[in-house]
Sequence to fold (197 residues):
Amino acid sequence: MREHVLIPGPVGVIETVIEMPAIQPVGLALIAHPHPLYGGTMNNKVVTTLAKLMREHGHITVRCNFRGVGQSQGKHDAGIGETDDLHAVTDHLSAHHPGLAWSLLGFSFGAFVQKRLSTRIAAQRLLMVAPAVSIRPFGTPGTAAHIFQGDADEIIPLAAVVQYARREAIPLTVIPGASHFFHGKLLELREAVRAVI
Fold:
């Protein structure tokens, strides 16, 4: 079952797609998309790949458009207001699904927002794909984390991700030959994530 809803947020509605797994839900998974000023939306192929995988593992998946994208209201806020928006979404859905734990997944800029959210809500895990550590001020996650990074990323250097992962003692899975957008490497990314959930 797929539901398209507009959830109230701090500066207006947040366009959200909620999809149910084929089995009894075991958790909730929020997947955040890459930078909205460079074409990122909740329909990004990495985001939809992660969502499908989490549904296969029994999670209710939640994808949102950040501020100013699609039907989501407001203007881009460099990850600050976007964190507030995702917090509003998790509060809204937790009220409808009490007892289910959150998994937070984010791609690039979305990983930055999810890292920030992980310090504000009780989450089971934080999975960051190609996190924008060379562009944004990443700090310590608020929950157990794992990073997935391509060694051919043309936007976020592997060395910067390795340095961050070591500093924060976060496990890192490197995907050989993968660019920032994982062209031709979505299967490898999916299987790498599957191995840790």
User: Anything to note?
Assistant: Helices lie at 45-56, 80-96, 109-117, 158-168, 186-194.
